[in-house]
Amino acid sequence: MEINNQKTVEKDELTGDILLSGHESDNIRELDNNLPKWWVWLFVITIIYAVVYLFVFDVIKIAPYQQDEWKKEMAAAGTVAPGQNAPVDAASLVVLTDKPSLDEGKEIWLKQCKVCHLEGGQGLVGPNLTDNFSIHGCTYGDVVNIIIVGAPEKGMISWKAQLSDTQIRQVASYVMTLKGTNPPNPKAPQGDPCK
Question: CA 20 to 30 Å from 57, out of 31, 76, 113, 115?
């Protein structure tokens, strides 16, 4: 024990470091050590980084946020986030009415869509597609969009990778033929009424 400026200072017997008074638990005493220099510099660097980040992203806004970059990339790729309208080219806005296209659309429907919407489109996991209500829009373009984008929050995947543009238009055209049919045991209406 040493006396320094009229204060009693205790030192560790092994290392000679100063012991803090009042910091003892289970006969373990805390030393009054300085933090390692690498830790102090790391702390300073993180503070500087935080200030620069705040300035760049929120004050002068010269860098885009991640979600903004993602939206830009999705728009460039021709897809958008769920809940947003995907761009549709003008050719896809024309409902296909020829028998071969509708037959092909029905075949795709029976292979891919029937599981969730049932054969007659009356809905099971997916919504009823035969009534005059829609969750994602009522037009042919809306049907094409939902096939392209999907509705992950509802369990519907995007079919853009599995189906060609022609196949998407064919199945969307077939879906349009289901409107107004009266299949057995239809699911209750969901979404907004179509005009």
Answer: 76
Q: DSSP letter string over 73-93?
A: HHHHHT---TTSPPP--GGGG
For residue 92, what pLDDT band results from cuts at 50, 70 and 90? very low
Classify 18 as helix, strand or coil: strand
Identify the DSSP state of 127: P
Sequence spans of domains, the chain = 2-31, 37-63, 81-193
What's the predicted TM-score (pTM) here? Answer: 0.54
Diameter over CA atoms, the chain: 103
- The CATH fold assigned to 81-193 is Cytochrome Bc1 Complex; Chain D, domain 2 (1.10.760)
Structure tokens that stand for 169 in this block: 């238009």
- Quick one: what percent of the chain has pLDDT higher than 70? 88
Q: What is the DSSP letter of 154?
A: G
Helical H segments across 63-157, by residue range: 66-77, 99-108, 114-117, 140-149
How do residues 126-170 score in pLDDT, each as one tens digit? Answer: 899 999 888 888 888 888 888 888 888 888 998 888 888 889 889
